[in-house]
Amino acid sequence: MKKFTSFLLALVSILAVALVFGGCGDKDEAEIIRELKLKYLHAHLITDYPDATVDDVTIVKYYGQYGNSYVALISDGYHEYRGVISQETIKDLVFTYTNTNSVKVFDGVRFYNLKEAYLTSILTMEDLQLLHRQFPKPTEEGNELHGEPIK
């Protein structure tokens, strides 16, 4: 019983320190998506389109956190994404898109495409391989590669 009590006291101490210094670092997906939309708005829209709002930004697909960065396919109501098959190739990995938009990587400071994120060591090859496994593959019927946008 004494060991269990010591364990609980240590656990409570660790949790208290974590809360004092900014929490455990885990953000829920909704909070991450809100932050991505806001950061994207300020990085890509507000200068040229001062009336733009976060409602003009759509997270088409959120792929998750890789290292200290967040990966998502993001679009907005101000740019035209031509409906042609496009690809982004990094070493032997090919990421295929149904239009000219591509996945963005946000490191807390700025947005990168996948290749830039890899070349600047924001994403590792292992990160890219994991992302590639969950990345949608084109279908013979020409269906969308990505699901419904997240509002």
Keyphrases for this structure?
two-stranded antiparallel ribbon; disordered C terminus; alpha+beta; 151 residues; 23% strand; 4-stranded antiparallel sheet
A few lines on this structure:
It contains four helices and six strands; from the N terminus they run H-H-E-E-E-E-E-E-H-H. With 151 residues, it is of the alpha+beta class.
Radius of gyration: 19 Å
Question: Could you tell me how far the N terminus lies from the C terminus, measured between alpha carbons in angstroms?
Answer: 50 Å
| Silhouette | globular
- Percentage of β-strand residues: 15-25%
Computed structural class: alpha+beta
- Individual helix count: 4
Mean pLDDT: 80
Unreliable runs: 4-24, 140-144, 147-151
Structural description of this entry:
A hairpin with a 4-residue loop joins strand 5 and strand 6 (111-112). The chain has helices at 2-20, 29-45, 114-119, 125-134, and strands at 57-66, 69-76, 86-90, 93-97, 103-106, 111-112. With 151 residues, the protein is α+β, with helices and mostly antiparallel strands.
Q: What is the element layout, followed by pairings?
A:
Elements: H1 2-20, H2 29-45, E1 57-66, E2 69-76, E3 86-90, E4 93-97, E5 103-106, E6 111-112, H3 114-119, H4 125-134
Antiparallel strand pairs: 1-2, 2-5, 3-4, 5-6
